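Box 3.1 — From sequence to structure: AraC family transcriptional regulator
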Amino acid sequence: MQSYEDRILRVVDHIHDNPTGDLSLDALADVAAMSRFHWHRIYQAMTGETLAQTVRRMRLHRAACWLVQRDWPIAEVAKRAGYPNLQSFTRTFGEAYGMSPGAFRQRGELRSPLQQPDRGDYPVHPVDIAEVPPRRLAAVPHKGAYMEIGKAFEKVGNIFTARELWPHARGMVGVYHDDVTAVPEAELNSHAGVVVEDGFEMPDVLEDLRLAPGRTAVMHYKGPYAGLRAAYDYLYGVWLPKSGEVPGDAPPFEVYLNSPMDTPPEELLTDVCVPLK
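Predicted structure (token representation):
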């Protein structure tokens, strides 16, 4: 089991790190060091999706983030995401997101209100104050840009699938330890985790991470993950100052209420949680 798990994680790393490379079935079979006649069947059986679906999902997610968080021309985004030309990227992106890359970039609710003070149509998301329970996470650490944490989520998800641990899962959570405005992007620290029960026997390849209970501001966000940066700016720059609340001494975290593997980007639900004093 460990050997197959290692092969899957190696392939996921390769897909993430080489979006413009050869990601054909034969090439990925070589990365896995397994016969091309069997590798794809093994991958699909162990992960629940085909290699082509994984490649497409990871490429489009990174492209969506780049469209919102970078000022690269759309043709450059397409090239960096591994598409041979702008036309194929536009067609594939439109099929997944229901709009062109240009429309996605221009859409108001994905913009930071702190960067667009003259628009008057700031993205507003409902926020509640709740007493959240303690959470124990089986986690994989990630260092670098937060929009790249998908690589760590792929790893923890594949470990749970390969070891048949999903019956112990109680949800997916991302923890973001550093402030993107104060720490260089390459030095940002975060964790991708699966919520598990207290009695769960933690595999040695995962970190045991605990989130404390307490009063928490919970912002209910709906939409593609690429829009979360603007949602954070609303929470910290608009809601918190108006509320009179003060953040506590613990990092923000995101609770993912559904999965991009079987949910359209527009229907993704995320609770953005900020511990309060």
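Summary of the box: DSSP finds nine helices and eight strands in the chain.
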